[in-house]
Amino acid sequence: MPQYCFHIDSILTLEGDDTLEVKIGQEDFMDWEALCPSIINFTMPRNQNFLQIFETTYNLFSAEWAALGEEATKLRYEYGRAPAQLEREAFGVQQNANIQLQELQNQMAHIYQEPPLAKKQQAQTQNQLEETQVQLANTQIQLAAPRAQLNQTLDELRQMRNQHTATQSQLAEALEKLNEGEQQSVPDASQTTGPRVPPQKKGEIYQAGHGSRNQLYRILRNTRSWAFAAYRNYDNQFGPKAIDHRRRSVLLKE
Questions:
Q1: Which parts of the sequence are annotated with region: Disordered (predicted)?
Q2: Alpha-carbon torsion 16, 22, 26, 28, what sign?
């Protein structure tokens, strides 16, 4: 007689009159006593409700389980492994769910953080730009006063130069008139019998007899020296090089 092997996914139920039946189809049942001798292997379902029912039936039908012999040992072994394996599987599922949930939360947090981060960087850049513009405006204000003072001083120097030029012209004209007057008052050398006075070199101060002329030369020389010294001193303080140096100092301080 040929032997057949079937894999049955079934439900173990307890019917009336304490009869164990195994549901093997939609409406097909098999008595437990008829099925037991042919059990080769049994896979314990990893279901908490089924395990509780199995424990209950095991306690109720201890004699029947004992009659199964080796098959009962297999079933009991599978039952012993099932809770631990079920716990491990449940822990693995929970752990995977937690990991996936954490990854999803991280992704959502990253998505929500991207726009604020970009806005924050843009705001920082805008603030830096505004601060630079304010510093530039302050620097321009600070440079405006020296520039105005420079223009005013340059105007004063121009006026002084014009006055100096006019004074030089007046002095030159006065010297020319003085020379003409002296030439008219000096007698001819051929008609004089006194000792001749050697001619003076250019720029030399007459020792005697020419007080007005010597005074004019001194005034002209002193005026020129004072004007040049004043212009040089102003150029050192307010000239282009001095302004450029102060501008660099202000920028470095800022």
A1: 179-205
A2: negative
204: left (phi over 0), alpha (psi -120 to 50) or beta: beta
Type of residue found at 223: T
Nearest-CA neighbor of 182 among 170, 191, 190, 174? 174
In angstroms, the CA 96 to CA 178 distance is 119
Q: Whole-model pTM above 0.70?
A: no
Share of the chain above pLDDT 70, in %: 48
How many Å apart are CA 29 and CA 161, to the nearest integer?
131
Looking at residue 254, its pLDDT comes to 53
The residues pairing with 23 across neighbouring beta strands, listed in sequence order, are 11, 29
Give the domain ranges of the chain.
1-41, 44-148
| Tokens coding 83 | 């809770």
Contact 48, 34 (CB under 8 A): no
Helix (H, G, I), strand (E, B) or coil at 191: coil
